[in-house]
């Protein structure tokens, strides 16, 4: 009798496991073309490679403001936990957010480094430095790193999204800027990259969640499944670190 009970329990466990697996597999295969995704600007290259969708890329905090104002979105992906928590606190998120990647800041200059920058140090004095605004994830991370390094930064402009910082540096409009490591990878030979001591050990964490009130819940869930499952390899190819 005991052997029969063990066998039945084992079969039930296998059945449940198989059912859960099929649900996940089915979700990831659902068409996501019509899913409206509001995602951090630093994801503008990698997300379209993982799944088709209707994308809006911007600074994470700006996206929260847009969703709060009624902009239609099915999925929200943030470049830090603080901004995702802001969305959760505002009642904009349905379910529990999921961490799917990490990223850290680096210092970049134009390829020929005309300002003679050597890193996040006194070589930045008197140079045209561009950073993200403190209210967006890349800006908050910049403030944190500068404090740890014991240096006061004097940016000539503070941008609302990291891709604008990248654009100003790669075009030569600025002498230096702080961007994510993945942005430096995207820029390739257009910029010179300087790692910042301690930055990789304390990276930004990226989070994704379904927006409350979506009319395409199944599509939103399918998109999130693709990002958090088969999308991990593509994220790594673009320089993102794994979720922690």
Automatic annotation (TrEMBL):
Residues annotated for molybdate binding in this entry: 42, 60, 162, 180
Species in which this protein is naturally found: Arachnia propionica
The keyword Metal-binding appears for this protein: yes
Lineage, opening ranks: Bacteria, Bacillati, Actinomycetota, Actinomycetes, Propionibacteriales
Keywords on record: Metal-binding, Molybdenum, Signal
Signal peptide feature range: 1-15
InterPro entries named among the record's database cross-references: ModA, ModA/WtpA
Family under the similarity heading: Belongs to the bacterial solute-binding protein ModA family.
Top-level lineage group: Bacteria
Gene3D superfamilies reported in the protein's UniProt record: Periplasmic binding protein-like II
GO molecular function: metal ion binding; molybdate ion binding
NCBIfam families, per database record: modA
GO biological process: molybdate ion transport
Name of encoding gene: modA
Protein name (database record): Molybdate ABC transporter substrate-binding protein
